[in-house]
Design a protein that fits this description.
With 175 residues, the protein is of the alpha/beta class. It is built from six helices and five strands, in the order βαβαβαβαβαα. Helix 1 links the parallel strand 1 and strand 2. The structure holds 4'-phosphopantetheine (PNS). The site of 4'-phosphopantetheine has 13 residues, from strand 1, helix 3 and helix 4.
Length: 175
């Protein structure tokens, strides 16, 4: 039984993440999607509860996930490697969109392996359609009223739009 952990901020989950989850679920017996803390992004826009809920709803809606029976969604506020050991996992999954992702991801893979020699990181190349896609882009487009329906599933679209519209009103002083 091979368990993979796919960690990230997921602020919010996009079709790019869901593509990686879907493909990982075909490759491994179990996939744990782990909402983790990225110290470089201390101010996530969506709360932890919202990010977990968006992930669970997106996976359940099954639009881009074919094998959701072996997918679990969880969170951790500690070191990824500690969670990895606790769960007896085999592999860390990371998606790579472009060479610009590579340096930081490569460094994290080496650090995790150094912290625990059994921690292998497997990189999945992003789907071509997702190479330009990021949670930050989605948030920015939605904040200014743009159409994000091509980037996030319908089950979470409205919630994302409402919260970002509120943020836009706050920023522009209209609220
Ligand atoms: O989606 P992100 O923000 O690129 O994901 C980065 C994340 C959350 C996977 C990374 O920051 C992480 O692993 N955080 C947990 C804390 C940790 O273990 N840090 C050391 C990584 S070498």
């Amino acid at each position: 039984m091979k368990t993979a952990i796919y960690p990230g901020s997921f602020d919010p989950v996009t079709y790019g993440h869901l593509d990686i989850i879907n493909r990982a679920a075909k490759l491994f017996d179990k996939v744990i999607v782990l909402v983790s803390v990225n110290p470089s992004k201390p101010n996530c826009f969506f709360t932890l509860e919202e990010r977990l809920d968006f992930l669970r709803r997106s996976i359940k809606s099954g639009l881009s996930i074919q094998h959701c029976g072996n997918i679990e969604v969880d969170s951790s506020d500690g070191l990824l490697i500690d969670y990895f050991k606790e769960r007896g996992a085999d592999v860390i999954i990371k998606g790579l969109r472009a060479m610009s992702d590579f340096e930081a991801e490569f460094q994290m893979a080496l650090v995790n392996k150094d912290l625990f020699y059994k921690a292998e990181t497997v990189f999945l190349a992003a789907d071509v359609a997702s190479t330009f896609l990021s949670s930050s882009m989605v948030k920015q487009i939605a904040m200014f009223g743009g159409d994000i329906s091509a980037f996030v599933p319908p089950s979470i679209l409205t919630d994302i739009k409402i919260k970002l519209e509120q943020k836009r009103l706050e920023i522009t002083g209209k609220k």
